[in-house]
Amino acid sequence: MATTLRRPHYPVPVPVHEDLDPRRSDGVDDETDEVDDVGVRPLGDSGGTVSDEEEEVEDAVAEDIARFEASFRNITQRYRLINRIGEGTFSTVYKAEDLLYDHYQNEWDLDGDKENIDNISSSTLKQTSSRVQKPRYVAIKKIYITSSPLRILNELELLHDLRNSLNVCPLITAFRHHDQVIAVLPYFQHQDFREYYRDFTVDETRVYMHSLFTALSSVHEAGIIHRDIKPTNFLYSPSKQRGVLVDFGLAEREGTDYHHCTCCVEIPDRQRKIQTSVYATTVNAAFQAGQPVPKPTYPNNDQRSSRRANRAGTRGFRAPEVLLKCTAQNSLIDVWSCGIILLTFISKRFPFFHSADDIDAFIELCCIFGKKRM
Ligand SMILES: Nc1ncnc2c1ncn2[C@@H]1O[C@H](COP(=O)(O)OP(=O)(O)OP(=O)(O)O)[C@@H](O)[C@H]1O
Ligand SMILES: [Mg+2]
Ligand SMILES: [Zn+2]
């Protein structure tokens, strides 16, 4: 069975960053704004924040890291940047060592709990201090400055709301320096999807999907739609059989973009609408006058405003209602994307759908799932 990342239930919110102020403890003159002093729940038994390995870094990445360190005030006093681990559409993600780990409560880190207990017992036995600690790793998500402030705030707020959620990577904290915002998350050790999807057995697929659905159900329970479910946003460790959902950059609260849509109309009402449409009336009139039935036509110059709906997501994973610009989308769009991941495991093809635009994507879906000839 999949391991869910259980977070202990606290009856009252746990205060965070109240123990030690780095400015007092080590004289750091920190002019960086903390965007959201958020409390976080433990990441459960995820592991990954403690590790001995230190990887090799390419020259170009080292230069990028140096530029980032130089541009973001005081970041080097808090974190030691190690490597670039992700470059997405909206951000660059770095692996870093948390240098001030000891100065804060770290409820997000169950590895920490384990090690602290070990240290306490060994220190009582050997009268040694607990200073011999392994480095603690975090993932620093540098959100591109081209993202709108509202979008950045939305991502941080939703992550904060989801801090109790199973299998969701919690936000530790966030900082701003000028127009640059960084989100700090526990580093979660995982394997690239392309390395394992072909080899997964049915049982392994079941465990993966269980873990993914656990994450999704806690997100949906909180009334949030992720909107970008895909393998790169679900960090999974096949050896530990655990995964966490990341990247709430496109997520939204259910109902935010919701408007009435014809697909919500009951079938008899929809049929009545079709029967009383301009085209149906024209066809009827022609039929009764014994004239040939006109073919449907389209206005040359359509004055109506084009239909607007949230299309956020990744190609190949968008649900049909997203492709069709349905204005009444709900959390089911995420379930569709999970289905595409399952299809990838079953078919051993990734990406399964790969069309350039929404029309082609829809035709691909019709070819596979369609029941009538179009
Ligand atoms: N907590 C984490 N631990 C380890 N790696 C992470 C973590 N968070 C993100 N990453 C890595 O960074 C990548 C990009 O992160 P994320 O999806 O949050 O950014 P993004 O810019 O929105 O990406 P994209 O546009 O590709 O979806 C992830 O696919 C993953 O490889
Ligand atoms: Mg992503
Ligand atoms: Zn609709």
Description of the molecule:
The chain is an alpha+beta fold and 374 residues long. The protein has a domain at 16-191: Phosphorylase Kinase, domain 1 (2-Layer Sandwich), CATH 3.30.200.20. It contains 12 helices and 10 strands. It has helices at 22-26, 59-71, 75-78, 110-126, 149-161, 193-196, 202-221, 267-275, 278-288, 320-323, 332-347, 358-369, and strands at 33-34, 79-87, 91-98, 137-143, 173-177, 180-186, 224-225, 234-237, 242-245, 252-253. A 6-stranded antiparallel beta sheet has the order 1-5-6-4-3-2. A two-stranded antiparallel ribbon has the order 7-10. A two-stranded antiparallel ribbon has the order 8-9. A hairpin with a 4-residue loop joins strand 8 and strand 9 (242-245). It is elongated and about 90 Å long. The model is unreliable at 6-47 and 117-131 (pLDDT under 50). Bound molecules: adenosine-5'-triphosphate, magnesium ion and zinc ion. Adenosine-5'-triphosphate binds next to strand 2, strand 3, strand 4 and strand 6. Zinc ion binds at residues 261, 263, 321, 326, 328.
